[in-house]
Structures are given as C-alpha cells and as structure tokens.
Amino acid sequence: MQPKAGRLDLLLQDVESSRRYEVEIQLGATDESHIIRTIEYWDIERKRYPQYEHTAVIVAEDITSRFLNVINLFNGTIPLIAIQMRALQSGGKVGLVFTTIVDLLSLGLVDEDEEGQEPTDRAYWETRGSKKTVAMADQLLTIAKAHDPTLELKYNKFYIGLARNGQPCNFVVFRPKKGFIRFEVRLRNSPETQERLESAGLDVMDYDNRWGYYRIRLQPGELDKHKLILSDVIAEAYAASAQK
After folding, report:
1. Which alpha helices (H) appear in the chain, and where do they start and end?
2. CA quadruple 131, 208, 151, 201: dihedral, nearest 10
3. Which of 161, 164, 132 is nearest to 148 (CA)?
4. How far apart are the C-alpha atoms of 106 and 86, rounded to whole Å?
5. 202: number of CA atoms within 13 Å, CB side?
6. How confident is the model at residue 118 (pLDDT cuts 50, 70, 90)?
7. Residue bearing the bigger pLDDT, 88 or 51
8. What is the mean pLDDT of residues 122-139?
9. pLDDT tens, position by position, 77-86
C-alpha cells in the first residue's frame, strides 16, 4: 500500500543491483490517470527508499500514440519504461507477448547525481561494508593512479568515487559490501567486452545501462589474481573519460 495513494501493483528489484521498478498494470489502452499513477508511485518509493535506483514502469494492452509522446516526454526527466502486453491464442492455448515501447533513457552521469554525492567518510564505509573491502578500494585506486597520480578516493553516501583536485572523476566507482566489493567501470556495453571479462574469470553482474558501467563483484584476495584484466579495463575507462 502507498501512503494516501492506493496500492502499487508490482514492486520488482534486481537482486544483483540497487535498482527497483515500480510497476503499474493497466487493462486496455493507456490513459492519463494510469500514467500519473505510475509516476506518483515511483515518486513515493524513491523518496521512501533513496538508497535504491528507481524506475517507473507502465504495462498496458495498448500503448496508444496519443500518450506515447507524453510518456517519451516524461522519460526525459523521469526514468520510465512502457511495455505493451498482448495475449495471443493458438491451438487452444494463450500466450503473452511483451513489447518494450519506451525504454529507459540515460539521465546523466553519476558525477551529476547530487544525492549520490552527499559526502561521508571512510569510517562510514568501513561500517556499511568492512575494513577489508574498503581496503580493496585502496588497491584499485593504486591501479588507477598509474594513469593520474592526483586521483584520490571520494566517499559519497551510496558509492566511493574518484576525485581529481576535489572534482569528481568517476570512470570507476566502488561499492564495498560486507564480504565483497562491487567494482564498477564505465565502458561501452559490447559482447566482446562482456566475453573478455567473463573469460578472465571475473564475476560480472548486470550492465548498468543508465550510467554505462560494467558491475563486477570482487572477493577479498581476488585483486592479485585478476590484476592484469583489472588494470586493462581501468586503463580503457580512463582513456575513454579523457576523450569526453
């Protein structure tokens, strides 16, 4: 139940990331009341649970052209997905066909995420994660400093980033957990990169389409084992960020 706003149809969460989806399901064609309800539920959830990334989703039997432009307009400022669901009958059986009509737009870089940049300190992350996993961020910083010795860790509320002369430089970010660190490197999504990472034995999680990061789970003791491939991808991400 949503405070003063009815009942959310579905709340989905990606178990490998901090992303949640607030889903509104509508019979028939899209209409203004369901679109507003979708956005309202998304807004309530993101304010209640700011530690997650939130995406509004509307599922309807028909995403009409009248509201397609409206949905696209909202998607420029609100992370919004529109899915059309059709039922097809064949051989006495019914199947469902889902078509993504409006997909999630990238809304900016993590450098620009003001809420994510709320400053904290090392002690905060050693409590939220552990001293062992925060120390892994130090080791990864050492690899990054080979490209720019002025880089330093910047402790934010939801991630540890990098900074150069006090300014964000987040071609990689770190999210220490209790038993592992999530290492995120900003690279263009490609089958070749995915295969290279997996062939090296890395535990590759989901690709973050919103921010453009590969998410890699690293256990304590694995940095030395994977130092070569980690050095390579950090170098590639640094080079790509320097071109922007």
Report:
1. 32-48, 65-74, 122-128, 131-144, 191-199, 222-225, 227-242
2. 60
3. 164
4. 27
5. 29
6. low
7. 88
8. 95
9. 888 999 999 9
Q: Kind of pairing, strands 80-90 and 53-62?
A: parallel
Contact yes or no for 147/153 (Cβ under 8 A): no
pTM beyond 0.85: the answer is no
Tokens at 219, concatenated? 């256990």
Q: Give the CA-trace dihedral at 58, 61, 64, 68, to 10 degrees.
A: 20
pLDDT of residue 66: 78
Q: Is 196 exposed, middle or buried, given 0-12, 13-18 or 19+ CB atoms closer than 10 A?
A: middle
The three-state secondary structure class of 11 is strand
Question: With 80 as the cut, is the pLDDT of residue 61 above it?
Answer: yes
Give the DSSP letter string of 29-87.
E--HHHHHHHHHHHHHHHHH-TTSEEEEEEEEEE--HHHHHHHHHHTTTS-EEEEEEEE
d(CA 176, CA 136): 8
Lowest-confidence region among 44-53, 106-115, 219-228: 106-115
The residue count for the chain: 244
CB under 8 Å to 77, separation ≥6 — which residues? 107
CA–CA dist 142, 31 (Å, integer): 53
pLDDT at 107: 46
SS3 content of the chain, % helix, strand, coil (to 5): 35, 35, 30
